[in-house]
Design the sequence.
């Protein structure tokens, strides 16, 4: 048998330094995933220390255990259902009162608890002194001082935790949170009643059940009904009677009275253990905020930071992107030269390497972006950004923090949707994810450039700008629509802490960045791989196409003619002849490619879909181009190049061919709007699926955006036709 | 530090934040006696920057009310309005020694009395 395993859960307020302590205990040996069924990040780490195998679980940072937010439910359920051996509550020493609110709630759960008084250094600099021994004595809980970012006290904390886990102290403990006489009486009465009726049906502490039922705890009420069957309604009725009793005495909802009394109890403790000297302090954080959230400077500085982040992500990221591109090119070149010709080779090079390569290229963007976001979060600037932007975002029914993902969307939707993780409320997060794809990403720009450049040569800039603008307007409308229908319900309270500014630790920034990127690589890899194979299959099969002409023979004939002629003509005309020959072969190759695409499955699908696209003025070739754009928008232009029969490197030729093809400025405009709005790309869908934890939202997003795209394009095309703009 | 001490007075006279006509009236009375303890009840959202008050009760219901209480905005606690965001919403408070921001509509649920002007923060 190996060493004994002890499971330790870390609980604490957001910004209490919990993550720092978690990082300094586990280092890089951590596993990041999601709590089952929800999008709350779950972090775990394992280490061997003092002869034990310690498994550390980082609970979501919360201010309370009232089951209102998912984070709180997750944290509470873990302690209740998974029975960790010890719960370490991280207490921000400079914020004692509020930290103790959560701490006392955890105490009430009756598990083995140890308090870590963290950031004692900050507290001391503010003239706050805390008597740990007294606190330990008053609350009957071991208390350890720690300074997470200096790794102080962490070993002692772990030692104490192990000691506690191995001790057989009696639970429940005698010293507990005490309420006023009337309430205690009520709790006692109800508890005695519960002990009689429930018996062993619920494994929780009866006093806790009594308190929570008096607080009208919805989750526990459901639990009681589920576990006690027929007696459930009787128990709840008793709870109601006791609740109205408390309500009569205090003239307020019992849950409010309980909160008040808990804070009252805490105030008593704080008075005993904390002394503040009236030291004149200079609050650096406040001074920074005098500038960063200043009435006049706040916005310009914010815009500058965002601009800098954008620049770093997409400009600096462009270099490694290029290297990766070259690397992929070399890899497929190498494979092409080494492997024998076969379907497998085509699949590997044109399907897998090309498909996965087109996504892996975003890795530098994602690394840099998440590094920047980690800086914003770890310094505390993120909440200031939300503070500045909330008024504007609230108009769409969103939280101030939604601004960053939406803005990032203009670069690339994939990291943008991942950035929505910073939103705590699930509804806000889903809404942000659903509207972010309407932010026109950089991959869509080449399509606009070609179409607008061709059909609106003199006003291309204005046209492209108005398309971007239309994306923003539609995202606002969509936001309002969904907020009032699908994602209705009370806005989560904005109430947000503005934590003191802190200097971020490089280690935590790196961990932060790597976690997210790893997830991107792992999950994207799978879905993109499958998607690329499907698209490749559709565009390269059936392989036995009946061509309208035998291109191989035609090529041979052309070559023969050329060779024959070279022997006949003189030196002077040779160049001319060679050019003619090259053009001929190029033309043949292009025709071959066109026909291959046309007769492949995707071509068939395109033709099949043609009636769907006809009302918006897009022919079958446009449909195929748009279908291939499903993989990545960049492909649309190159597909159009193939289908409208031009070589890749001849941009002007494509313009010419487009004009020849019967497309009008009106249908081009419709197509641009369609490109703006329809399904972003495979990677985005995969990200939506990943971030919302449901295929339903991903498919919903696909359906909604495609329908909207079609509707808007239809309105533009048909409306324009009615108004007589349909003539080229 | 001197700059900080001077600021409140400036903002007191230069930047009155008026939310509605009713608050205007209340503010007028306070203008006359800015440094006296005021027993008039007033919404937190009607306070101006650098003002402080004592919480009498929290209105509203459900989630928001509970959340405000849990963040330490309970009866008898003093709150200090650090600043309003550049777009006048949300606002930043100091309560129990930490900074928290609320939307104006949320702050309207917090009823205060003993409103006064303070030169230092509310802690």
Sequence:
């Amino acid at each position: 048998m190996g060493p004994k395993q002890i499971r330790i859960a870390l609980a604490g307020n957001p910004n209490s330094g919990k993550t720092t302590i978690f990082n300094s205990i586990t280092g890089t040996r951590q596993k990041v995933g999601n709590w089952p069924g929800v999008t709350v990040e779950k972090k775990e780490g394992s280490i061997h220390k003092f002869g034990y195998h310690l498994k550390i679980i980082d609970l979501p940072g919360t201010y309370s255990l009232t089951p209102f937010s998912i984070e709180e439910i997750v944290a509470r359920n873990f302690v209740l259902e998974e029975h960790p051996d010890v719960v370490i509550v991280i207490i921000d020493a400079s914020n004692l009162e509020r930290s103790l609110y959560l701490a006392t709630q955890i105490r009430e759960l009756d598990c083995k608890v140890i308090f870590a008084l963290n950031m004692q250094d900050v507290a001391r600099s503010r003239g706050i002194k805390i008597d740990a021994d007294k606190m330990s004595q008053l609350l009957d809980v071991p208390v350890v001082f720690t300074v997470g970012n200096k790794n102080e006290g962490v070993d002692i904390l772990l030692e104490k935790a192990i000691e506690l886990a191995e001790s057989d102290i009696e639970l429940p403990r005698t010293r507990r949170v005490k309420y006023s006489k009337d309430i205690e009486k009520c709790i006692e009465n109800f508890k005695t009643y519960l002990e009689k009726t429930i018996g062993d049906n619920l494994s929780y502490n009866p006093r806790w059940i009594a308190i929570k039922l008096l607080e009208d705890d919805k989750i526990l009420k459901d639990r009681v009904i589920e576990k006690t069957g027929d007696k459930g309604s009787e128990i709840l009725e008793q709870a109601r009677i006791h609740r109205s009793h408390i309500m009569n005495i205090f003239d307020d909802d019992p849950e409010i009275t309980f909160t008040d009394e808990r804070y009252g109890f805490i105030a008593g403790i704080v008075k005993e253990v904390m002394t503040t000297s009236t030291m004149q302090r200079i609050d650096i954080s406040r001074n920074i905020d005098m500038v960063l959230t200043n009435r006049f400077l706040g916005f310009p500085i914010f815009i500058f930071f965002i601009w800098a982040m954008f620049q770093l992500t997409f400009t600096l990221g462009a270099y490694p992107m290029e290297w990766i591109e070259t690397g992929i090119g070399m890899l497929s070149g190498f494979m092409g030269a080494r492997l024998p010709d076969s379907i497998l080779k085509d699949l590997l090079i044109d399907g897998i390497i090309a498909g996965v390569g087109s996504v892996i290229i975003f890795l530098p963007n994602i690394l840099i972006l998440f590094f920047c976001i980690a800086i914003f979060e770890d310094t505390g600037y993120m909440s200031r950004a939300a503070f500045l932007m909330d008024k504007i975002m609230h108009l769409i029914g969103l939280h101030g923090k939604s601004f960053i993902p939406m803005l990032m969307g203009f670069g690339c939707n994939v990291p943008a949707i991942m950035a929505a993780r910073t939103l705590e409320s699930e509804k806000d997060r889903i809404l942000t994810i659903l509207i972010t794809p309407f932010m026109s990403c950089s991959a869509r720009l080449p399509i606009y450039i070609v179409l607008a450049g061709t059909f609106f040569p003199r006003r291309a800039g204005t046209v492209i700008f108005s398309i971007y603008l239309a994306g923003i307007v539609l995202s606002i409308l969509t936001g309002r629509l969904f907020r009032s229908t699908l994602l209705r319900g009370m806005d989560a309270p904005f109430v947000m802490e503005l934590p003191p500014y802190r200097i971020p630790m490089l280690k935590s920034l790196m961990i932060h960045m790597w976690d997210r990127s790893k997830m991107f690589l792992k999950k994207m890899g799978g879905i993109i791989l499958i998607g690329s194979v499907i698209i490749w299959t559709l565009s390269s099969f059936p392989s036995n196409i009946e061509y309208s002409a035998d291109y191989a023979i035609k090529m041979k004939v052309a070559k023969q003619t050329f060779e024959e002629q070279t022997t006949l003509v003189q030196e002077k005309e040779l160049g001319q002849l060679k050019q003619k020959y090259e053009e001929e072969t190029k033309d043949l190759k292009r025709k071959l490619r066109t026909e291959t695409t046309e007769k492949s499955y995707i071509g068939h699908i395109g033709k099949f879909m043609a009636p769907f696209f006809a009302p918006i003025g897009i022919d079958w070739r446009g449909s195929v181009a748009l279908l291939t754009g499903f993989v990545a928008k960049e492909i649309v232009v190159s597909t159009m190049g193939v289908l409208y029969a031009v070589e890749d490197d001849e941009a002007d030729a494509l313009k010419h061919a487009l004009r020849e093809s019967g497309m009008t400025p009106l249908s081009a405009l419709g197509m641009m709007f369609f490109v703006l709005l329809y399904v972003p790309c495979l990677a985005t869908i995969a990200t939506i699926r990943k971030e919302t934890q449901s295929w339903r939202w991903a498919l919903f997003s696909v359906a909604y955006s495609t329908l909207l795209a079609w509707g808007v394009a239809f309105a533009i095309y048909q409306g324009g036709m009615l108004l007589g703009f349909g003539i080229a | 530090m001197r700059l900080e001490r001077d600021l409140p007075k400036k903002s007191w006279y230069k930047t009155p934040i008026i939310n509605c006509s009713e608050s205007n009236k209340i503010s007028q009375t306070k203008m006359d006696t800015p440094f006296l303890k005021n027993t008039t009840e007033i919404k937190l959202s009607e306070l101006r920057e650098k003002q402080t008050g004592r919480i009498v009760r929290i209105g509203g219901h459900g989630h928001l009310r509970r959340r405000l209480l849990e963040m330490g905005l309970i009866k008898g606690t003093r709150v200090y309005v650090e600043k309003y965001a550049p777009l006048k919403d949300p606002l930043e408070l100091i309560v129990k020694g930490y900074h928290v921001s609320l939307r104006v509509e949320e702050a309207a649920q917090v009823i205060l009395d003993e409103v006064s002007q303070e030169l230092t923060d509310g802690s």
Summary: The mean pLDDT of chain A is 84. Residues 506-540 of chain A form the longest helix (35 residues). Residues 396 and 477 of chain A are 8 Å apart (CA to CA).
